[in-house]
Design goal:
Blueprint: E1 4-7, H1 11-22, E2 27-31, E3 54-57, H2 64-74, H3 78-85, E4 87-88, E5 93-96, H4 98-110, E6 115-119, E7 131-133, H5 141-151, E8 157-162, E9 165-167, E10 177-178, H6 188-191, E11 194-199, H7 201-213, H8 240-245, E12 273-279, E13 286-289, H9 298-305, E14 316-318, E15 321-326, H10 330-333, E16 339-340, E17 343-348, H11 358-376, H12 389-400, H13 429-449
Helix pairs in contact: 1-11, 2-11, 2-13, 3-4
C-alpha cells in the first residue's frame, strides 16, 4: 500500500500519523527541524509545545475545550495519551511537562513500525500521492509561497506572542503564595498549582506605566503594525502591552484579575490585581507567567517583569517573544474532508487551517489522519456532527465562518448548534453547558461506532 505523507511533525502531524497507523496504513513523516530552525522551536522533537504548556480546561462537562479532550481520548488520540502521562498540577486545566511530553510523542511514533521519518524541508507542494500538510503557524517561507501560488490567495497572517518562563527558586515566596483560582482541583497539589503575585493599586499603576513606556519589537514594512495594515493579532493571544493600550484596567479584568484568590500572607487584604505563574515542568523548577505574551524587547521585559511583587529578583529561563502565524482562508479553500478543493490529494491539518490552540490543532490532525486513512482504504469518512467539539470546528473553518472576515478560532459553545429544548427559554450555563456536552458525547460515540 502506498504511504500517506505528512509534512510537519507538530501536534497535528504527530496525531495524524498515529491515527493513520491505527488503521494499518503506512506513513512517511517529513519534518524540517532541527535541520531548518524556526524562531520559536528549540528541538527537533515531535509535538514540541512552544507558547505554553497548557491544553486549557479539562472539564468535559462545562467546557467545550474539555469536551474536545474527551473526544480525542475516545478516538485513541496520541496527544491526550501522552498528556495524561506527563500531566502537571494546574487546577482544572490540563498542563504538561512540555519536554517530557514531546519526547514521549516522538518515541511513540519512532516505535511504530508503520511510521517512517524523513528529515528535511519540503519546499513545494507535491502533485502526486496523498499528503497532509500540517506545517503549523511557522510554515517555511518556501512552502508558504508554494501554497499561495497554488491557491491564488494572498498571505493571511497574524502575530502570536510567547510568554516568559521564570526559575522557581528566584520567586520570593514571602510575598507570593500557592493557590489555584477558586481552589479548583481534586487534590491539594491541584489546588495549589499556581504561584500568585499580589499587587496593590500603586503596584499596578506603576506596572502599567512601565509596560506602556517599554521599548517594543519593531515590525518591517508590510508586516503587522506597519501602515496601512493594522496589527492582526489573535484576540486569544494578545500581547499584554496591546491589552494595556486598550485601557488601564484591561489587564486587571483579564489575566491579572484578583478574583477567586486569597493572599495567604495577608488574608484580610484583597489584592488590586494578581499575576499568576503556572508550573511548566515536572520538577517544579520552571513557571510560566500566565497570559503574559509580549512583544517587548528582552531588556525591557526584565525591567518591567521585575516590578511585579515577588519577582524583583526573578531569573528568566526564557523571555517572551513574537512570531508570524500563517493560516489559510479555509472557508474558501478547504472542503469538509479537510482537502484543498482544487487539489483533493492535499489535506491540511492543524493551525494552518485557521483553528487556534494546541488541542484544536491536534484535533484537526486526528480528523485529517482518519479521513486520509479511510480514503486510502476505499472508504469515505464524513466529519463528526457539528454538535460535537471536533465537528463544530470543522464546520466553522470549512464554511460556517465568513471568508471575508475569517480569523483563527478556539473551540467554544458558540460554534455548537442551539439546543432545541432550550430555545426561547432562560436556561443559564449551569443547565445549557452540560446539555451541550451530553449531546456531544452521544453524537461523537455514534460517529465512532460508524467506523467499526
Amino acid at each position: 500500500m502506498e504511504p500517506i505523507h505528512i509534512i510537519g511533525a507538530g501536534l497535528a502531524g504527530s496525531e495524524a500519523a498515529w491515527q493513520i497507523t491505527r488503521a494499518g496504513v503506512p506513513v512517511v513523516l517529513h519534518e524540517m527541524r532541527p535541520e531548518v530552525a524556526t524562531f520559536a522551536h528549540r528541538t527537533g522533537d515531535c509535538a514540541e509545545m512552544v507558547c505554553s504548556n497548557s491544553f486549557r480546561s479539562d472539564d468535559d462537562r462545562m467546557n467545550a475545550v474539555g469536551q474536545l479532550h474527551w473526544e480525542m481520548r475516545a478516538a485513541d488520540g496520541l496527544i491526550m495519551q501522552m498528556a495524561a502521562r506527563h500531566r502537571l498540577p494546574a487546577g482544572g486545566a490540563l498542563a504538561v511537562d512540555r519536554d517530557a511530553f514531546s519526547q514521549a510523542v516522538t518515541q511513540a511514533l519512532r516505535n511504530e513500525p508503520l511510521v517512517s521519518f524523513q528529515p528535511g524541508e519540503i519546499r513545494e507542494l507535491p502533485t502526486e500521492g496523498r499528503w497532509i500538510i500540517a506545517t503549523g503557524p511557522l510554515t517555511s517561507a518556501a512552502l508558504g509561497q508554494s501554497i499561495r501560488a497554488l491557491t491564488g490567495e494572498g498571505s493571511l497572517a497574524f502575530f502570536d506572542a510567547i510568554a516568559p518562563i521564570v526559575h522557581a527558586d528566584s520567586i520570593d515566596m514571602s510575598i507570593c503564595w500557592r493557590q489555584s483560582r477558586y481552589d479548583k482541583g481534586d487534590t491539594e497539589e491541584e489546588r495549589t498549582a499556581y504561584i500568585n503575585c499580589p499587587m496593590t493599586r500603586e503596584d499596578y499603576d506603576g506596572f502599567i506605566d512601565a509596560l506602556l513606556a517599554a521599548e517594543k519589537t519593531e515590525f518591517h514594512e508590510g508586516e503587522a503594525g506597519s501602515s496601512p495594515d493594522p496589527t492582526p493579532y489573535f484576540d486569544g493571544c494578545l500581547p499584554i502591552e496591546i491589552m494595556a493600550e486598550r485601557g488601564r484596567d484591561t489587564l486587571r479584568h483579564g489575566p491579572m484579575k484578583p478574583v477567586g484568590l486569597t493572599n495567604a500572607h495577608r488574608p484580610e487584604e484583597k489584592p488590586y490585581a494578581v499575576v499568576q505563574l503556572r508550573r511548566d515542568n515536572a520538577l517544579g523548577t520552571l513557571y510560566n507567567i500566565v497570559g503574559f505574551q509580549t512583544k517587548m524587547k528582552y531588556g525591557a521585559q526584565v525591567d518591567v517583569f521585575r516590578r511585579i511583587p515577588g519577582l524583583h529578583n526573578a531569573s528568566f529561563a526564557r523571555l517572551g517573544g513574537i512570531h508570524r502565524n500563517t493560516f489559510l482562508n479555509s472557508p474558501r479553500l478547504i472542503d469538509d474532508r479537510l482537502r484543498l478543493r482544487s487539489h483533493p490529494n492535499l489535506r491540511f491539518a492543524g493551525q494552518v487551517t485557521g483553528v487556534e490552540g494546541y488541542v484544536e490543532s491536534a484535533a484537526m490532525g486526528l480528523l485529517a489522519g482518519r479521513m486520509a486513512a479511510a480514503e486510502a482504504l476505499g472508504r469515505d469518512l464524513p466529519p463528526p456532527p457539528a454538535t460535537t467539539s471536533m465537528g463544530a470546528l470543522v464546520n466553522h473553518i470549512t464554511g460556517g465562518a465568513d471568508a471575508k472576515t475569517f480569523q483563527p478560532m478556539n473551540v467554544n459553545f458558540g460554534l455548537y448548534p442551539p439546543l432545541e429544548e432550550m430555545r426561547g427559554g432562560r436556561k443559564g450555563r449551569k443547565d445549557r453547558y452540560p446539555a451541550y456536552t451530553d449531546r456531544a458525547k452521544a453524537d461523537f460515540n455514534q460517529w465512532l461506532a460508524g467506523q467499526v
